[in-house]
Specification:
With 386 residues, the chain is α/β, with parallel strands linked by helices. The chain is built from 13 helices and 10 strands. The longest helix is centred in the first third of the chain and has 29 residues.
Length: 386
């Protein structure tokens, strides 16, 4: 079965990868043939992704990710797929047209929400510097240096965490005792749990203690930071993509969000909300639960894809595994591959100005899914067999 990873972040948002070539070289090494770029709020990595895939006979999928807001869910206190924030909903767009093109008012809406996300992190940098000054840490973060050296235009709180780790290590000349003491001071007395050579672990602790909700340097997003769910879907459709709902499903304690707990009900609600495509980040889930959810949704006619994100400092395999590094079953591999086939066929058709799996109103005829699987399979094999 052809291996697929349909959700990968790059340094154009935040990523474990050094650059696009790093991501694609790892895909080749692990024999993952179909790879989907899936950055937050940006498509700037598409050209590099397309060219890199072409050189390596990989199949590119062109995707994007948003955080949206459903006010009705928020008022009802309904946790959707952001467990700590009722109404806040992560959404992906799959199979956008390439070359990317977006008309108004959608282009300005996308640019606006991306700018708001950047402004929030810039405000956190100011607040973090105030804390560093109060603690007499002897360190100041330079937001322009961070933008120029650690980002490709989009700045996330993970970039601040990385910048702070680098600055602390530099200030302490990599002395373990100095580093641990300084972080304990910055964390309000909490000791650093990670070994100092575990860069990803240290950065995650910085983020958790200082930059997430409840952290001393956290700045809440303004209302402008979240577009309504329907607006996000409209942007995705205007860009030629398929609006896609990312499932959390079970967490490590076997719990679910309010929205996702009843599988039959959530499938109905997603259909009512106009979604014909869903995805899972497989390392989050127990493999049996993943098979139960993915199989049920597949049988209900949804396009189902899987990915790994790589949206953190920790480097994980590009080949997909479930929780505890459990291999995916043949059934899951098939479901994911067929989802990638539909996505590949869709973006192939829409790029030529033809109707894809969803039309210009976001409507899909699920009875035609197998036709798109067949076309996508032909397209994928024509590329990887070159």
């Amino acid at each position: 079965m052809i291996k697929v990873n349909a959700h990968l972040h790059t340094p154009y948002s935040f990523s474990a990868f050094n650059d696009v070539d790093d991501a694609l070289d790892r895909a080749v090494a692990e024999e993952v043939k179909v790879v989907g770029v899936n950055d937050f709020y940006t498509t700037e990595g598409y050209e590099e992704w397309a060219e890199g895939c072409k050189k390596r006979n990989l199949v590119p999928l062109f995707n994007i990710e948003f955080i949206s807001l459903n006010e009705e869910d928020q008022k009802a206190g309904l946790r959707v797929n952001d467990p700590g924030n009722p109404g806040r909903t992560y959404l992906s767009g799959k199979g956008l047209s390439y070359p990317f093109k977006l008309e108004e008012p959608f282009a300005s809406q996308l640019a606006g929400v991306r700018n708001e996300a950047n402004l929030q992190v810039e405000a956190m940098c100011v607040k973090l510097n105030e804390i560093l000054k109060e603690k007499n840490a002897g360190i100041t973060l330079d937001i322009d240096w961070i933008k120029d050296n650690l980002t490709k235009g989009s700045i996330r709180e993970r970039h601040l965490a990385k910048a702070l780790r680098l600055k602390v290590y530099e200030h302490c000349a990599n002395d373990e005792t100095c580093i641990e003491k300084l972080f304990q001071e910055l964390f309000g007395g909490k000791e650093l749990k990670s070994k100092i050579e575990d860069f990803a672990g240290v950065e995650n602790e910085i983020r958790g203690n200082l930059l997430k909700a409840g952290g001393a340097a956290f700045v809440p997003e303004t209302a402008k930071a979240f577009l309504p769910m329907q607006t996000v879907c409209d942007i995705i459709i205007a860009a030629g993509g398929i609006p896609t709902y990312p499932f959390l499903a079970d967490d490590a304690a076997g719990k679910y969000t309010d929205f996702e707990g009843n599988l039959e009900k959530v499938a109905e609600q997603l259909t009512e909300r106009g979604f014909h495509s869903v995805e899972f980040i497989t390392t989050r889930n127990d493999v049996k639960l993943l098979e139960e959810y993915a199989s049920y949704l597949y049988d209900k006619g949804f396009v189902v894809t899987f990915g790994s994100e790589h949206n953190s400092p920790a480097m994980e395999p590009i080949e997909l595994f479930a929780r505890h590094s459990t291999p995916l079953s043949e059934k899951l591999m098939k479901i994911n591959y067929e989802g990638a086939c539909v996505t590949a066929a869709h973006q192939h058709l829409t790029t030529q100005g033809l109707t894809g799996y969803v039309d210009e109103k976001g409507v899909a005829d699920r009875s035609k899914r197998d036709e798109f699987v067949k076309l996508g399979d032909q397209l994928i094999n024509s590329i990887i067999e070159r």
